[in-house]
Sequence to fold (253 residues):
Amino acid sequence: MGTTQLESVPEPKYWHLRTVLTEALDSEFSVGEVLPNERDLAARFGVARATLRQALEQLELEGRLQRRRGVGTTVAPPRVGVAVGTARHDWPGAADDAWEPADCVPAVPPAAVADALSTGRDETVHVVRRSRVTHGQPVAAELLYVPASSVPDLTAIESPSGPSRARAVLRELGRGELEHRESAVELGSAGADDAKELDRLPGAPVLVVTTRYLAGGRTAALSVATYRADTCRLTFGDFGDVEIHHGPQTRAS
Fold:
């Protein structure tokens, strides 16, 4: 069988540099240490700064480096395992839920969310904002969209917004009988609001987990959760202890 065109393409310079930098991170740097500036790194490895930036961006995407405001580029700690689903299929806000309610306001959701909820595109829903912190650092931000029909007894709640109303919405939502939930994961880029909440720069890589909660044959709530791709290893099921390593096994410590 002949060699395909793809197989004959040489390895890009930035990818080779990424491999060299990975070895340097493992042997020369510790977690949290600030890397030398781009000019010095480019001179050390004999490459153009554009090539260096491509390699650094790749390592940031892989979770080996972090760009921090006012600090620079630092060596990232190992990814934290974050559970995003269990076999119990609980409603959001259940007793062992790791999310912290921050706010709840009535708002018209994006058109795609309204279609998923089968509400009118001009219909107001409850938008619950929650955050998640692991080992003292923010790892995820969530918007949970709940139609009024899913929380019919919420009219007795007086708080127009805030954490107390968020908890009330979650409590009322949990009174229903959850049939099951479905989740999908995709790679995305942090918008301005998510970046601020997650202490990242706008455009930083994130993992977006969309979850539909189904009850009574319809979507009772829709969650759009944004996780830091540089620090999170998403786990599913009750244990989430499966790890497959590609490349160097050692990490800076």
Observations:
- Strands lie at 65-68, 72-75, 80-85, 100-107, 125-134, 137-146, 180-189, 205-215, 218-228, 232-236.
- The two ends are 45 Å apart (CA to CA).
- The CA atoms of residues 17 and 54 lie 9 Å apart.
